[in-house]
Amino acid sequence: MANLTTPTVPEAAREKSRSGGVPRPRRLRGSRSLSGMLYAAPTGVMVLVFFVLPVLLVLQMSVSDWGLFAGNRGLNLPENYVDAADNRLLWPAIVFTVKYTVITTVLLLAVALGLAMVVQEASRWRSVLRTAILVPSALGLASASLLFYAIYSPQSSPINPALMALGVVQEPISFLGTPTSALWSTVFLIVWRFAGFYMLLLMVGLQGIPGDVYEAAHIDGANRWQIFSRITLPLLRPSLALCTILCVTGSLLAFDQFYILTKGGPDNSTITIVQLIYNMAFAGGNDLGLAAALSVMVLIALLAINALQFRGLRGKEN
Q: In whole angstroms, what is the distance from residue 261 CA to residue 165 CA?
């Protein structure tokens, strides 16, 4: 009876007394929080050094008279932004970049989705097909652009001699000689280079769709188009949204392919926003302040476009 009536020390108080006045769970939480901060510290340093500080430097340049060789010569706000907006190549570059982005996004996603469905449905040679389609993704964009520059070149192109030998064309095709042909030649390069990468992303989404859904649709008598439009596309929306955001952002920042293939020609018809920034800073302009001002304007536009994409896709999911 004495043991029943004797008050017992609460477990929390006992743990507190053993740990010197600090409860053990709180100490564990603190150590785990410290461990998490230590694990995240290298990433935080990388972001600070390679993103935050460069952005701050670009902001400083955009409001300064900053020549490539002369350095910082003081503030000149808002002269850089006014000059960037008045540049005669700005609006042609914006129009061309937007047109290129729309064409590339539509074609690339359509081809990637078609390839993903073909590989997904293939019962034999699936691994061979997947590997063959992914091989171009192993090349860097600059390397792929140099390869296609050799293919498109009149001096080294194997396409024109073959077509002329077959009687398909009478004269060599100028793949990069006109604005239209230069645009579509570059789009073909990008689709060839990135179709495998986006196919892989979409295949992951296709594999996440339960097979029971397709079986139920077949039992209900749905045809292929109904299954694709009412089951595959809606359930594949997250993967399509990711691919769309990546493709739009990459296309708006296109530089390597046009710099190597066309240098913005013919007659500045294929110059992009990023190439215009490069020209302002290094190729004759030598004005880092003007290039930085245009870079800030592009950054703000990209943030707004991505925000609209996220908002629109989230609204559809709701």
A: 26
Residue spans of alpha helices (H) in the chain: 2-5, 11-18, 24-47, 53-62, 79-86, 90-121, 126-134, 141-152, 159-166, 179-207, 211-219, 224-227, 233-235, 237-252, 256-261, 273-281, 288-317
Contact in structure between 76 and 63 (CB atoms under 8 Å)? yes
Which tops the pLDDT comparison, 222 or 147? 147
User: Tokens standing for 307?
Assistant: 């925000």
Structure confidence by residue, pLDDT tens digits, 176-188: 989 999 999 999 9
Q: Containing H/E element for 64?
A: strand 64-67
Q: Check if the beta carbon of residue 116 is closer than 8 Å to that of residue 243.
A: no
pLDDT digit string (tens) for 251-287?
999 999 999 999 998 888 999 999 999 999 988 778 8
Predicted model pTM: 0.83
Q: What CATH number is given for 79-317 in this structure?
A: 1.10.3720.10
Amino acid 206 reads: L
CA distances to 48, 79, 202, 257, 304 from 298, in Å: 21, 17, 29, 19, 10
So where are the chain's domains?
Answer: 1-40, 79-317
Q: Across residues 284-307, what is the average pLDDT?
A: 90
Rounded CA-CA distance 223/215 in Å is 12
Local structure of residue 154 (DSSP, 8 states):
T
**For residue 75, what are the β-bridge partners?**
64
Cα 163–144–201 angle (5° rounding)?
A: 110
Q: Which two tokens stand for residue 1?
A: 């009876």
Q: What is the predicted pLDDT for the residue at 318?
A: 47
Peptide bond before 266: cis, by omega within 30 degrees of 0? yes
Token pair for residue 37? Answer: 């901060």
